[in-house]
Amino acid sequence: MLTVNGLNQRYGESQTLWDLSIEAPKGQCTVVMGRNGVGKTTLLQSIMGLLKVDTGQILMEGSDLAPRRAEDRPRAGVGYVPQGRQVFPRLTVEENLEIGLPIRPKNDRKIPDYIYELFPVLAEMKRRFGGDLSGGQQQQLAIARALVIDPKLLLLDEPTEGIQPNIVQEIGDIICKLNQEMGLTVILVEQKLPFARKVGDRFCLLDRGRSVASGEMDELSDDLIRQYLTV
Ligand SMILES: Nc1ncnc2c1ncn2[C@@H]1O[C@H](COP(=O)(O)OP(=O)(O)OP(=O)(O)O)[C@@H](O)[C@H]1O
């Protein structure tokens, strides 16, 4: 579904991604892992066109997104749940969800029913301001908002960060459902190993802006964990 080839990115003089390649096979959940500051968020923002890349390809079903504008990503079927959620605090839950409607076909510009079925709490809180929701509810809203465009590929940046354990479990179940039952391809940035193991089919480990190991989740060995994840 998505193949990133030889990506190089820098902030001014400081190079962050080095010849980085990753593969997200269709219908699978690929978990991007690595210690703080290795470039996970930079990678997702580069895929989304929010950061300029120097060289490299971002192939979505064979078509290169790298030279295209950020606005083209949703139309290409890429949904994004940014780190820190970025819910609009002074818009209601419903208004937050409506932001994606212009991407939907002209004759179907409504929030799909299944979204409120997946997140019943958002149906209950439709008219509340985004800023009044708890962290876990805001995270659910951020995921729901990304789903409004009917993405083929969903990128999630640390959706469990700062969220209480029962909601973490709920979010894990929803990601599994979207991926395994509904066939959505997922790229998940995640630091929590048990969560990564629960939802992921594959892993990709980053270290100082480079991809250092990847494979099936059950190939993520204790050695790799010690070398690239344990702090
Ligand atoms: N806007 C920026 N300007 C300059 N350097 C930046 C900027 N954003 C990130 N960096 C640097 O780029 C490197 C990668 O950061 P990035 O946020 O992508 O890492 P990360 O793996 O997502 O970390 P974390 O797990 O803490 O979110 C870090 O050294 C960081 O300091």
TrEMBL record:
Q: Does the keyword Nucleotide-binding apply?
A: yes
Which GO biological process entries does UniProt record here? Answer: L-amino acid transport
- Write out the entry's keywords from A to Z: Amino-acid transport, ATP-binding, Nucleotide-binding, Transport
Task: Extract the InterPro entries matched here.
Answer: AAA+_ATPase (IPR003593), ABC_transporter-like_ATP-bd (IPR003439), ABC_transptr_urea_ATP-bd_UrtE (IPR017780), BCAA_Transport_ATP-bd_LivF (IPR052156), P-loop_NTPase (IPR027417)
Molecular function terms from GO: ATP binding; ATP hydrolysis activity; branched-chain amino acid transmembrane transporter activity
Can you give the residue ranges of the ABC transporter domain? 2-231
- Pfam families with a match to the protein in the record: ABC_tran (PF00005)
Family membership noted in the UniProt record: Belongs to the ABC transporter superfamily.
Tell me what this protein is called: High-affinity branched-chain amino acid transport ATP-binding protein LivF
Query: Could you tell me which species this protein originates from?
Result: Grimontia celer
